[in-house]
Amino acid sequence: MQDQDSSYKRIYSHPEMMRDLLLGFVDRPWVKQLDYTTLQKVPTRFVADNQRQKEDDLVWRAGLPGVEWPVYLPFEVQTTSDGMMPVRAVSYAALWLLRSD
Question: Fewer Cβ atoms within 10 A, N terminus or C terminus of the chain?
């Protein structure tokens, strides 16, 4: 599983691949409006309160015309179903918002 996860992470580390994934699979108007020339990977390493390091798979940032703040796009590779994924996603978002950089 780890090799498969790292392969997906490597593939979707390229802005063109992330753009194609979003446009091909996320059927929302705002996805078509994103300024894909502004796609940037953002750091994903966090330290939780218990001092354990956590790392999200990928987080991308892109501009949206007419919107002052960038859109953040977390990308988590899952090779199996995980009923706790919503909880994990919220914890990643909270850790990301609390980062100290």
Answer: C
Amino acid letter, 89: A
pLDDT-based confidence at residue 99 (cuts at 50, 70, 90)? low
Burial 27-57 (b: 16+ CB within 10 A, else e): eeeebeebebeebeebebebeeeeeeeeebb
Does this model's pTM top 0.85? My answer is no
What is the full DSSP assignment across 34-98? SEEEEEEE---EEE-TTS-EEE-SEEEEEE-TT-SSPEEEEE---SS--TTHHHHHHHHHHHHHT
Q: Per-domain residue ranges for the chain?
A: 2-97
